[in-house]
Amino acid sequence: MVPPLSVISTLPSISLADLDSTWSLTRRYDTKFMLERSVVDEFLTATSASLAALEIDGARAFTYRTTYFDTPDLLFYRDHAQRRSRRVKVRTRLYVESRRARLEVKAKLGNGQTHKVLFEDCPELGQRQIPQVDDAISEIYPTARYSEVAGELVHSAVTTFERSTIINRDGAERITIDSSLVLESNAKRFQLLPELVLVEVKSPHHISETVRRLRKLGIHPTSFSKYCAAIEASRDVRPRVHRDASLARKLRAMT
User: Fold this and answer.
1) Which residues are 188's β-sheet partners?
2) What gap in Å lies between CA 178 and CA 64, rounded to an integer?
3) Which pLDDT belongs to residue 176?
């Protein structure tokens, strides 16, 4: 079995500056697929003519460490599990190799799009950021449900993974491939099985070119959420986003 990164290494490269210049969407559709490495390898090989991979200082895979915040009673998690079409996540993201960090408010809109508000060079949710986060959320969702929620937020989970980023030069798509996923929550740690990777297609179109190609191959999207998986693997919560048996087949506990 050949890891997908071996195929990514053969793609033309694109710099971070060029990637940013071709991608400025704050609203987009995100479609996820949970695949075996061999399937990703085959798919990338078949479509490589239109792809380019992000490369920084000779590297094409980068470590991300994401810290999620939620209320003590897990309001954000419950909104996801209850399938609310309009919901929020608050998190910080550390790009480990570059030591860059930012605070993010990620919202799911009622039409299925994802909207992000970013606070660059911000590694933590502190007192100074609380009113900024509240303002960002209230602009997206002017509802009492999230009114001044930022002041209640506490650390709820941490995820760490390796990410490679690809663009489709024939369409407005960014494709991320996440591997070596580790979930930490409630003093417990779990690891995604090493043969699995999470592929996410980000596009202004609800059904993008890559999503259409994967569907034609009989590969269907997944509702897998890193944050919700961390909560569900470490706590007895109901309702749940993932079926117990399905999640158990994807994760293993770490000592």
Assistant:
1) 185
2) 9
3) 97
Sorted by where each starts, the structural domains of the chain and their CATH numbers stand as: 4-204+230-254 (2.40.320)
Dihedral of CA atoms 227, 230, 231, 236 in degrees, nearest 10, equals 150
Amino acid at 71: T
pTM: 0.95
State residue 48's pLDDT score: 84
Per-residue model confidence (pLDDT) at position 63: 97
Tokens linked to 20? 């940013």
Query: What stretches in the chain show pLDDT beneath 50?
Result: 1-2
CA–CA distance, 127 with 121 (Å, rounded to integer): 15
Question: Are residues 116 and 103 in contact, defined by beta-carbon separation less than 8 angstroms?
Answer: no
Spatial distance between the Cα atoms of 208 and 210, rounded to a whole number of angstroms: 6
